[in-house]
Known about the structure:
0% strand, mainly alpha, rod-shaped, 97% helix
Amino acid sequence: MDELTKAEFRRVDDENTRQNRRIGELETTVKEIQKISISVEKLATNMSYMLEEQRKQGERLSELENKPAETWTAMQRTFITTLCSALAGAVAYGIMQMIAAYAAH
């Protein structure tokens, strides 16, 4: 082999070495990108579950917040009913007293 052929073989061999190194680096990069992609997918799934849980907690919180208002409304209704019943009883008693007084004369 002459010097020109040897030099060409060395150049091709050096080029192959560089290409193999670059391919190795690309394979490493692709593996890292795949890991990141899987992590992003897991993160999106977890966020979806968290969003659903937040929605459920919001509903439960609304129920808890409304409970005192419902209790207060029930208490008001009971008070008004009691007051009206007492008033109606007093009016009925007064009417009966007037009838009794009228009948006694």
